Amino acid sequence: MASLRLSSLAARGVVASAVSRPSPVAVRGFSTSLTRRQNDPATSADSKKPTFAIASRLKDGRALALDVWSVFNAANLPQDCINLGQGYMNFPPPVWARDAAEEALRSVEGNHYAPAKGRLRLRKAIKQFYGTQFGKELDPETEIVVTSGANEGQYAAFTAFIEPGDEVIIFEPFFDQYLPSIAFHGGKCVYVPLHPSSEPAPNVKIGKQSWTIDFDELRRAVTPKTKMIVLNTPHNPVGKVFTRAELEGIAKIAEEHNLIVMSDEVYESLVFDGLEHVRIATLPGMWERTITVGSAGKLFAATGWRVGWLVGPPSLIGPTTAATTRIVFCSNTPMQEAAAAGLEQARERGFFEQQLAEYEERRGVLIDAFEKLELEYAWPEGSYFILLDISKVRWPKNYTFPATIEGRGRDFKASWFIANEIGVSSIPVSEFYCEEHVAIGENYARFAFCKDLDTLRRAGERLQRLREYLV
User: Fold this and answer.
1) CA–CA dist 9, 309 (Å, integer)
2) Has the keyword Transferase been applied to this entry (predicted)?
């Protein structure tokens, strides 16, 4: 291009206003030096102001580092950039669910505290929604707890069971909230990377099959300190749906070492190509050691509701309920009513079948765009994300990047360049790796297809302009 957009962004002060997030190594140095400065009156602008040491958990959990969502925030990108980075929808939840929230707001009870374990209507709706999918009928009093989003539910489970020094195995790339939630409780994350496949996906030219587990690596990750394995299927950001055989392998290891399994299944309704969503809790011996995570936000295109739930045996749900009671006390009442109405009516309305067909069509738009570009991607079996291999993207040697990008993976530069010069934003995948394995993530950017078809088509057309920057 004759004129690249970054210079105009700098002129508007966008680059200058961005706060730099250095590498994890630099973050440790930053947090240590900041703590020293805060406790050194000689370096304080006002020696009379109190100074306090920052808790080490913030450093261990990367909380002091500028996160990827802040770097690739709409405020830092061109105004007309199409946002396929963040996984939020640009269409509303179903009207019958929204009506239930409005009805609750018009009542007296609907504006007050819910029971700590969740409103009974919602817990009963969850029981009915799952039926016997867990191999049994659920007890809404002892085997279900409603939480303030799936993330808070997981945090409460870590609070209930993780002691300082306990190890928790997570698969890479991982949902970025796992790390701080574990670190804040003194736990240690042990990382097992999923491996990109070189095998072609069926019926396409460029796409590759889903990523795989190396079970030898998983077994080596288990130590006497291991307390839990965190599983995510369908997987964010890979789009992988774990097979029954893979889950049986994980279950065998969990049983051998008496481990809890946290099974994050928030994308349970988005499994494509006729594949089977297997709940690890249903495998022999696994119900008593598994916490299954669900989300109204993911089921009903309502991420702002912040309503999730956990399902499991009383021995796991009881302590987790005690923890969530002291973390948030209860989740908001009108949105619980909306979630309950959603679950009560979705099946009879054929909502999930229609939604799945719509997402398959949206997925197809991005896949077609990537196939035309002849850039490899991981075939998404579930969720609403696609990983695109951006290792062939090259930018001019004199291209200027903001301070927020320096010291981070190559994928951050590629994603920044694509967002600013092509006009489509994504999320660099190295953010979801530990330092040791970051090189795997540097080859990929995550694109979300939880957008309307028109938006996705416009994004696909823009992405074709990336050809001139490929090697």
Assistant:
1) 42
2) yes
DSSP state of 166: -
pLDDT of 77-122, one tens digit each? Answer: 999 999 999 888 999 999 999 999 999 999 999 999 999 999 999 9
pLDDT value at 22 more than 90: no
Residues 332 and 250 in one domain: yes
Residue 21 has pLDDT above 70, yes or no: no
Has residue 105 been placed in a domain?
A: yes
End-to-end CA distance of the chain: 16
Residues 6 or more apart whose Cβ sits within 8 Å of residue 382: 233, 234, 235, 239, 240, 241, 267, 270, 271, 272, 275, 277
| Burial call 213-228: b when 16+ CB within 10 Å, e when fewer | beeeebeebbeeebbb
How far from 103 is each of 18, 93, 95, 117, CA to CA, in Å?
Answer: 42, 16, 12, 22
d(CA 237, CA 409) in angstroms, rounded, equals: 17
Q: Which residue has the tokens 């949902």?
A: 175
Q: What percent of the chain has pLDDT over 70?
A: 90
Q: Helix crossing, 351-373 with 453-463: angle to 10°? A: 10
Question: Residue range 277-281: average pLDDT?
Answer: 98
CB 331 within 8 A of CB 299: no
- Residue 271 pairs in a beta bridge with 382
- Name the phi and psi angles at 297, rounded to 5: -60, -40
In a domain? residue 201: yes
Cis peptide before 237 (omega within 30 of 0): yes
The residue from 317, 346, 375 where one domain ends is 346
Number of Cβ atoms within 10 Å of the Cβ of 178: 23
Q: Whole-angstrom Cα distance, residue 403 to residue 388?
A: 25
> By residue range, what is the domain housing residue 103?
95-346
